[in-house]
């Protein structure tokens, strides 16, 4: 089993942190500063029964300048080249206008899209369901998976769900 997976989401939601945890190497640059990741970076996760190729993308946002415009195009393009899309959001921040922009973009995507609610270590479990509903109302996600990329909660489960789709 093998496939390509694109990780998209607003800047700083934890895309690079997730990829580094799964791949186990510091191959994507992590930072508090928005837009540190300027290129697609590939990471390959290999087990006995699966090979998952991850594409870490620049944070998607409404373009305000030429570089931003380019970065959005890179991210958009990647969605049409993969088998599965991971849309990562921040559990602490909830639905925002940046997410709305991404969800509009996802309307053109035919592949399964997983909603990954990251940073659950920072929210009370009771806050999670209303937050998830906000996203669920706006898009028909193939799976909704809460995780903590930083602490590793539920990450193995997510990798298994992705493997099952390949
Ligand atoms: P990216 O812009 O989406 O690639 O985000 P990064 O992976 O660079 O992470 C941005 C910031 O969020 C960093 O300070 C990370 O340590 C932090 N972060 C990432 N995942 C988690 C998480 O699961 N929990 C918490 N508390 N912080 C996280
Ligand atoms: Mg990044």
TrEMBL record:
GO cellular component: cytosol; plasma membrane
GO biological process, one term: ribosomal small subunit assembly
Subunit structure: Monomer.
Protein name: GTPase Era
UniProt keyword annotation of Acetylation present: no
Chain segments carrying region G5: 147-149
GO terms assigned for molecular function: GTP binding; GTPase activity; ribosomal small subunit binding; small ribosomal subunit rRNA binding
Membrane topology according to the record: Peripheral membrane protein
Gene coding for it: era
Keyword field: Cell membrane, Cytoplasm, GTP-binding, Membrane, Nucleotide-binding, Ribosome biogenesis, RNA-binding, rRNA-binding
Span list, region G2: 35-39
Region (G3): 56-59
